[in-house]
Amino acid sequence: MEQIMPATGAFSLIWVLIALPLAGAAVLLLGGRMTNKWGPYLGVLTVVGSAALGVVMLLQMMGLPAEDRSIQQVAYRWVFADGLSVDMAFRLDQLSMVFVLLITIVGSLIHVYSLGYMEHDPDRRKFFGYLNLFVAAMLLLVLANNYLLLYVGWEGVGLASYLLIGFWQVKPSAAAAAKKAFIINRVGDVGLGLAIMVMFVTFGSVTFADVFGQASAASEGTLTAIGLLLLLAACGKSAQFPLQAWLLDAMEGPTPVSALIHAATMVTAGVYLIVRSNAIFDRAVWAATAVVVVGLITVFMGAIIGSAKDDIKKSLAGSTMSQIGYMITAAGLGPIGYVFAIFHLLTHGVFKAGLFLGAGSVMHGMNDGVNMRRYGALRKVMVITTITFFIGYLAIIGIPPFAGFWSKDEIIHAAFEKGPVIGALLILGAGITGFYMSRMVAMTFFGKARWEDDVHPHESKAVMTIPLIILAIGSTVLGMALLFWGHIEEWLEPVTGIATAPSPLSTAATIGISLAFVIVGASIGWIMYLRREVPITAPRGSLLTRAARRDLYGDDVNEVLVVRPSYWLSRVLVWFDRAWVDGFVNGIAAFVGGFSGRLRRYQSGFARSYALSMVGGAVLVVLALLLVRLS
Amino acid sequence: MNTVPWLTILGAVPLVGSAVVALLPKGRDLIAKQVALVFSLATLALTIVVALQFDGGSSQPFQFIESVPWIPAFGISYGLGVDGIGLVLIALAATLVPVVILAGWRDVEDTPDARGSVKGYFALILALETTMIGVFAATDVFLFYVFFEVMLVPTYFLIGRYGGPQRSYAAVKFLLYSLLGGLFMLAAMIGLYVVSAQGGQGTFNWFDLAGMDIDPTTQKMLFLGFFFAFAIKAPLWPFHTWLPDAAGAAKPGTAVLLIGVLDKVGTFGMIRYCLPIFPAASEFYAPVIIALALVGLFYGAFVALGQGDMKRLFAYSSMSHFGLIVLGIFVFTTIGQSGSVVYMVAHGLSTAALFLAAGFLMQRNRGSSLIADYSGVNKAAPVLAGFFLFGALATLALPGLVSFIGEFMVLLGSFQRFLWVGAIATLGIVITAAYALRLYQRTMTGPVGPGLEGIGDLRGREITALMPVVALTILLGLYPAPVLNVVNPAIDNVMSSIGATDPAPVLGSTGTSSEGTEQ
Amino acid sequence: MNPANYIVLSAVLFSIGAIGVLVRRNAIVVFMCVELMLNAANLAFVAFARMNGNLDGQVVAFFVMVVAAAEVVVGLAIIVQIFRTRRSASIDEPNLLKY
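Output (structure tokens, whole complex):
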């Protein structure tokens, strides 16, 4: 049983981490128009405040011995009944610490960037309110000390995501995308909800400590059930197969949202959930295998979609799916992979945020155009954006010494320790990553200009480029810093456990092979999109390309299997309710009415016929009396 | 026992208010509204006073007990008293009435063909509040029945005189349906009296009846009488068709009281009368009732998904939620039943938020409740759209709001008892999200619809009416202890009266110790 | 004399009255037939009182007489009014009170 320490020092302010951005959201959303002017700055400040507090906590935590780094703060009893007791309580340990820093620091940068990006939007006060709400919910998600509170954060980020995807609600496509994201996420939430129920029924508690402490006593069937349900939840939130369809549509939201929520933080919550629940997955082999399978499928789905899309944001979204697939795969590998899943999550959070913000900067200069076929040669007019984007590019495809290289390589290495097939597939995935990212960079920044007539690209303002530069620096050094200076493996080891297994390939061989694949993939991309002019209208493409442009038919499958039958069923039930249930009730009423109408006819108004019926009645009564007496 | 008859005073205040409002001279509409608001606020203040005196930790589940013989020959008394369940429902009613009065400030003026006067509207609302308090506070079955039936009178007039185009049809349907249910309950109640009279003096006193040992066959028959009345009131599938008509024809304020409070009498009756008086029958019929509740849960949700009329959509959505509440009651777990009571409160609040926001919207567009008539309202009236979205989110039980706590406890309690029932019911949250967000998408987003450009945003009075509901939904979601503290002991009492025990966790840990205590 | 004969007489009178009510159209005659039935009942009451040796039947007979007198007052007034407005004393004609 792990040791849990009470909150002292800076740790007594854990709740403030969440409360600050939450208060910001409340002020911005309830304050009305009077906060229009200074509201956005307040929004930035609250997140920066949380980030500063997070850094202080990191320093204090680093001063503690490794076994004392799990801090808990109980606020009050939240939900309770006989046998059920859930606290409003927070847990800050090594795992949540790195998440707090990722969320608040990347969040701060994106808030600052948004000051520039959303400068002219009339509703930017709301935008910052929603962003703050998101940060608060995400922090709650990673700081909760029990699954039910985690659930609140889990749906809270879903709500923020819903609000921000649909931020430009006037566009019907944005509103539809927002709804779709929420509903698909709800399917995942069913998984999380049921997992919590199974935990409660099994362990009588839903706190992490109780669940993990007793996990070894539970049957493997139960743990497998919990694991699969958690995987369902993770699939919804992290856009993994088969619940991946919402992420591409989610790009309807403003680009900073895509960077913060749909690349760096929220979509990685599924990885957090699985790694956090390592005590369960370690003992549920089948569930862990399912995690690996889902992750691998998504690696390729995302990569293929990313290779075919001409919309720069959607291509990046496909890439995000694919990269999260790496993390999920790593998380499914067990103790040999957990640490690297988180490692990749952190580096990815930084470089993908940089890439998305870079894309946003490009769009900002291109009148919000997203079609890469109308880009080209932007390196001449957007120097800073080009350089930072290129660094992000090097990081994501995994060129040493950029951040992505270290984390991705560790995952591939761990995969080989588990099984050569998994490792080989991941290397292939890395090759495709090289291809689609090169395609993106080539189409956007190189080649000939294919701009539309009224577009005058220009470099963005400093408020936008400075976050880009900071993220680019992060994309360069973060991998090395975490590995060699931060010792991330040792840091996370008390939470996740760590293990190594003999690998069929040596470290050097793994690096060599994967680098070779990446370079081949990247070269194909560069050659295909630089040697020939990129056509402005997309060619018809191969069968696979066309499928990938339609998101590999994800929407069509949902439409045929779920959406159409639901609406059909609802129409039938509406009809049934009117015609049969209500019809039955009204039918009885009509019957009674009709019957009494008939009966009324006997009130003919002829006094003598009334008299006759009275006599008849009297005779009947007399006869009845006589019969009774005689018998 | 205290000497001040708090509950009688509580019930009398709105009644006096109703009489005062009704006796005001004609044409003094503003004064009538103000007097009504003052009386409703006074009732709310009194309710708070009562609630603060209520001792959740006491071993006595019923408090503020009053008992005066009424018709001693039949053992009928004027008996009042509340446990935690009755208390929170009275508090809900007392909270919603001022909200509805404020929200309906101009309801009558805005209905050109209303057949009643302004003061009549508010007098009826206050009269309705008295009956609502009475029905939740009665501890005598006969008194309960009286309030149960008298409640129909103001509701009938509120729908029939002040409602929309279909008001007469809806009001008569509502009245007949409810009377039919009441008739069965009356018969069962007389039967209950006869059974109680077999051991000497017959009684209608709840405390005596709840402790009585009734032969199981008799129980089953009498149970059905009570349950039928409550199932119509709640409404449970398939006895629900009066609700969409009534809610569709009623003013939004009336509909809030109808769905938010009156319908809770059904579920309240199940937990207060059906379970403790007929434990064996409850257990016998539980599988059937659970099946009906599950059917209702999904049926209501799917029909709501296909509705083209907002008010009817809300009615079907409520029917779906009532399925959930009934489910929580009849799985016989503490968590499920506590969750049901929390959900009753939460549902009252979320209905109020959604229905009133929708009402403000409809008022701005010639009273149309057709979804197809709206589009892009968010652009024209962002504050209204915000409240509407909040109502939708409360309906879909977003975590952090009180409806989530109720819903999750019900689902958890069901899962604890019947794994598959809980698992299937959980799937309902997806459909709920689908219809709630679809409604929002179709009415509030997209380009602004024709004729909606100048509708104007919410004004001060309207925001004031909605804010308490919103605030309560959030506060109780983050800190539900005020409700749970009083409800849990009452539920323990119900559970022990039916002799049910909670299934223990598989691994035997009770989980009551929180981590924070072990240092 | 055997009191049972009075009962028989009463039955005969009652039957005559009843048949009269059913077959005659003239309101006055119908009215007289109703009176006949009432008095037949009175006769039966008195006869039974005599047979049982107590006064109950006779008391009831007085009640019946009072009722009959009241009925005559109201009934004749109605008939006179109808005759005035419709120039007819037939009871089949005023069938406006239907449905």
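Chain B touches chain A through 78 residues (CB under 8 Å).
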